[in-house]
Automatic annotation (TrEMBL):
Signal peptide: none annotated. This is MATH domain-containing protein. InterPro entries: MATH/TRAF_dom, TRAF-like. It comes from the Eukaryota. Residues 153-288, 308-434 form the MATH domain. Pfam families: MATH_2.
Length: 441
């Protein structure tokens, strides 16, 4: 368009579009375009047509009589018309969306949201009575689920005769007798006209309370999941109401009651076809499953350079102990853990008859559950030149594998070479040094 005169540039329009499209474009008035939410075909600074500039003609092109699905083949009349336009691919796509009624307008977005809500309601309420549709909230805004089942509640049933007379007495709250479940005493609290303090008006409110807690220790807590019921006497089913996803509730001295402020709408409860109130009689129920806090707890901590981390063992009269398999040191305490050193004078495994084998042994690993980590060095000391034979490793010690080390820490030929200083006056010095270890409790 010619911006200075607010007129279409007819030369460019006819050079770009078909005869019919040109007529539609030229019929579009350009006056007051800045005061109305209307975008028109106009070149940008790069002399190109963009998606933004396509808006006006897109709306003009939209014709319900010729609109096609976005999966229509390209030889369709509308698509073919758009495909032949000498415009950028983005503009073609935009125009096609407009003609297919796929523009992201406020109206379409609102319709899409409504469609999603309808699908959710349909999926949630499928094959269920109106009173059983999910979506109610408990007193702390957790979602609840409503299902129907045939078998009766495991722990407690409350049957009320002459229910209308019971309501006429003006009783705001009724507390049932106590029942036992999971080693604790419980009772139901029923508000026949709703717990108005918790926004339960026009509903029945039903709660589960823990009772007889006077003898519990200070700071007691009981964790439980529960289900509350009302009996459908016509279909012989129990409507089951529970926290969604098996939410575990914590009962304690400050919060001794959990339940549902809007357990059931009064109109649903009083509606005879629903079967909850028949012959002026109704039945409620409860199931409680306590989660005992008996889980085993492990405490693991890594300690760097623990106290007394170097264990030094002098083996005197070493030549007289060649046939012992193995030689055990005394117990060394490093940090809070106990260790021993093991020496095989004639070697084992790969070092049999050609080397000295040295191992670190965990005294504490006696139960299958306990594992101890250690990063350590084992060495045979050179008592003359201080060129020790040593090696470093790391290992998780357990009851099944309580020792770890090296089968060829020192070759026997080096041991027997007096100049190398490993065996002096028939004394061998073996050390273990723990750099890092774990403490488990």
């Amino acid at each position: 368009m010619e911006g200075s005169r607010w007129q279409w540039n007819r030369v460019k329009v006819f050079a770009t579009f078909s005869q019919r499209t040109c007529e539609e474009i030229l019929e579009t008035p350009l006056n007051n375009v800045n005061s109305r939410d209307v975008l028109v075909w106009k070149e940008n600074r790069a002399k190109k047509f963009t998606v933004r500039t396509a808006y006006r003609i897109a709306v003009r092109l939209k014709n319900p009589s010729c609109a096609e699905h976005s999966l229509a083949q390209r030889h369709g009349p509308t698509w073919g018309k758009i495909w032949r336009l000498n415009v950028t691919p983005k503009v073609r796509t935009f125009l096609w969306r407009a003609c297919s009624n796929c523009l992201p307008t406020k109206e379409l977005r609102q319709n899409a949201k409504s469609a999603v809500r309808n699908r959710k309601q349909l999926a949630t309420g499928f094959d269920k009575p109106k009173s059983e549709v999910m979506g109610s909230k408990s007193n702390d805004e957790f979602a609840i689920t409503r299902t129907a089942r045939h078998f009766r509640p495991t722990h407690f049933l409350l049957k009320i005769q002459s229910y209308s007379l019971f309501c006429e007495t003006g009783v705001e709250k009724y507390e049932s007798g106590a029942f036992e479940a999971g080693g604790h005493k419980w009772r139901l609290s029923l508000y026949p006209k709703g717990n108005k303090k918790m926004n339960g008006t026009d509903h029945i409110s039903l709660y589960l309370s823990i009772v007889d807690t006077e003898k519990y220790s200070l700071g007691w807590e009981v964790y439980a999941t529960f289900k509350l019921f009302v009996f459908d006497q016509i279909r012989d089913k129990f409507l089951t109401i529970q926290d969604a996803e098996g939410t575990i509730r914590r009962f304690h001295d400050i919060k001794m009651e959990w339940g549902f402020d809007k357990f059931l709408p009064l109109d649903s409860f009083n509606d005879l076809p629903n079967g909850y109130l028949v012959d002026d009689c109704c039945v409620f129920g409860a199931e409680v499953f306590v989660h005992e806090r008996s889980a085993k707890r492990d405490y693991l901590s890594m300690i760097k350079e623990p106290s007394n981390r170097i264990m030094t063992w002098k083996i005197e009269n070493f030549s007289t102990q060649q046939d012992k398999v193995p030689i055990y040191s005394r117990i060394y305490v490093v940090g809070d853990l106990k260790w021993k050193l093991l020496v095989y004078p004639k070697g084992i495994h790969e070092g049999a008859n050609k080397a000295i084998s040295v191992f670190l042994y965990s005294v504490d690993c006696v139960t299958p559950e306990l594992k101890i980590f250690a990063e350590f060095k084992l060495r045979v000391k050179d008592q003359i030149n201080h060129k020790h034979a040593e090696a470093k490793t790391k290992y998780w010690f357990s009851a099944a594998f309580s020792d770890w080390g090296f089968s060829q820490l020192l070759l026997r030929k080096d041991l027997e070479d007096a100049s190398k200083g490993f065996l002096v006056e028939d004394t061998l010095i073996v050390e273990a040094e723990i750099m890092v270890m774990s403490i488990a409790k």
